[in-house]
Design goal:
This protein is of the alpha/beta class and 507 residues long. 31% of the residues lie in helices and 20% in strands.
Length: 507
């Protein structure tokens, strides 16, 4: 934030709009801007600070967020009624701003679970996964059949969670949809936050368990079991058999204890949902500052939601470590343009009604704030949905903007903790990876404090510097990674938020 007045926030001297810190009534003079409000301005919404002729650009963050659809007079409310999207050229400037990371000499640590493959978990769950929706009910019955008092006798086990989904059959056994599902299931089956896995199928589905095991080289063992309902003998026998397998796993999973590990073992999923105009001013740049710290400490951060960085992709390509990495991102952008077109949509189908009520007008404006979650370090790689992330540092994973679906892919890619910024107020939670929710404004944080972990509204209310907020977020990430529960964990969220990305025909 370049400067701040009592009533408004100016993000850059080159901007022709400012943001209302609170509701402003018509006729009020804006200190420092030499304009008077011609309209009543809701909190978070934009005010023109100069005349903007029809067709001219509207600029915020010193970036184009849209074009005036009518002549706009200084002091007017700037929103969906007078600006809109329009195509314009972007300078990708591949690698122009890539720079060396200033790594810390003594990385921070947390307490985590070391797995046989060397990866480190922040939680220690037993998971019941399904190959197909037809086995979803049985999977839920299995986890419910394992008595809570029995689980309580194993203090190092965080619980038994059934993660079910709506597909797995009625689909082609090739193509993007099938590949997404298999990568997702494989990513969860081998996730470091699981100490044990039971994979449950029906038996006749397209997404065969044996095909999955063969494709990804997964071997059955004491802490990885599979079963099919048709082979086991139906619902009741399957529930009994599955619950018995989990009871057998419990002692071995409980024997795993936390040990001190460097912060470089953390992979952080970056997400925003229910955004408002403050998202790009408080929580998102605050999270970006935490990401910069995590990368300096040797860790990994995954930015996603491809439709919601649309319009800001040129800021990421400038940070790409190579032209190849930058072009991989642009290839995903072009895929989404074609995907939305053939499905009768457009890339500006975002912001949502809640986003607009919170002051966001176009996807360009939303994306500029969303991209801030990624901090300022190099873009080191670009991945497909659910593809295993092997590169350290800041990376991008392709996904829809739909939060549960996006986070499911990020966790499948290896994220062992999640940070989720929200301005309108999300109640999302995730298993097996704990989810911290970062409120963009104090009003919502106060109203929904049982769901919110960190109030980033202090940037506006109290003038807290972004780097100080980033350090607070980073330290809280370490605490949660070491076992401290998040608000969503205290509320029990995460059983119903497993949403693999479905692409392709349902047959």
């Amino acid at each position: 934030m370049k400067s701040r007045t009592l009533l408004t926030i100016r993000l850059n001297q080159a901007d022709n709009v400012v943001v209302a810190r609170a509701e402003i009534v018509a006729g009020v003079d804006i200190p420092g801007e030499a304009v008077s409000c011609k309209d009543s301005i809701p909190a978070g919404h934009k005010i023109a600070t100069s005349d903007i002729a029809k067709g001219q650009v509207v600029r915020k963050y010193n970036q184009i967020i849209g074009f005036a659809t009518v002549d706009i007079t200084a002091g007017e409310h700037v929103h969906v009624h007078n600006i809109a999207m329009q195509d314009f050229d972007r300078d990708y400037a591949f690698c122009a701003e890539a720079r060396e990371v200033d790594a810390v000499a003594n990385p921070a640590t947390f307490q985590g679970y070391v797995r046989p493959d060397g990866r480190v978990g922040t939680r220690n769950y037993i998971g019941v996964l399904t190959s197909v929706n037809c086995s979803a009910t049985v999977a839920r019955y299995i986890s419910a059949a394992v008595e809570e008092d029995l689980i309580a006798t194993y203090p190092n086990v965080d619980g038994v969670v059934s993660l079910v989904h709506g597909t797995g059959c009625g689909m082609a056994d090739t193509g993007d949809g099938y590949a997404n599902l298999q990568r997702t299931l494989w990513g969860f089956a081998g996730h470091p936050n699981f100490g044990g896995i039971l994979l449950v199928g029906l038996g006749c589905e397209v997404n065969q368990i044996d095909f999955l095991l063969e494709a990804y080289g997964i071997e059955r063992g004491p802490r990885f079991q599979t079963m099919t309902i048709q082979d086991t003998g139906g619902t009741r026998r399957s529930v009994e058999h599955g619950a018995a397998l989990i009871r057998e796993m419990l002692p071995a999973v409980n024997d795993i204890t936390r040990v001190t590990r460097p912060a470089g073992d953390l992979t952080l999923a970056l997400q925003c949902g229910g955004s408002d105009a403050y998202s790009g001013i408080t929580a998102n740049p605050g999270l970006g500052a935490a990401v910069d710290l995590l990368v300096r400490h040797g860790g990994t951060a995954i930015l996603s939601e491809t439709p919601e960085i649309y319009g800001a992709e040129h800021l990421l390509t400038r940070r790409a470590v190579s032209r190849e990495v930058g072009e991989k991102l642009i290839e995903r952008i072009k895929w989404w343009e074609a995907y939305t077109e053939r499905n009768g949509g457009e890339m500006n189908n975002n912001p949502s009604p809640g986003n607009k009520e919170g002051g966001l007008t176009t996807i360009l404006e939303k994306s500029l704030g969303a991209a801030a979650k990624g901090g300022t370090t190099n873009l080191c790689n670009v991945y497909r949905y659910g593809e295993p992330v092997r590169t350290k540092g800041f990376v991008f994973m392709d996904s829809p903007g739909y939060d549960p679906c996006s986070i499911t892919g990020q966790v499948a890619s290896g994220a062992n903790i999640v940070c989720f910024t929200t301005g309108r107020g999300s109640v999302y939670g995730c298993k097996p990876s704990p989810c911290l929710k970062l409120a963009t404004n104090t009003v919502m944080y106060t109203r929904m404090n049982e769901d919110m972990d960190i109030n980033c509204g202090v940037v506006i209310d109290g003038g807290m510097p972004i780097d100080v907020l980033g350090e607070q977020i980073f330290n809280r990430v370490l605490e949660v990674a070491s076992g401290d529960p998040t608000k969503s964990e205290q509320l029990g969220f995460g059983d119903d938020e497993f949403v693999p990305w479905q692409i392709g025909a349902v047959m």
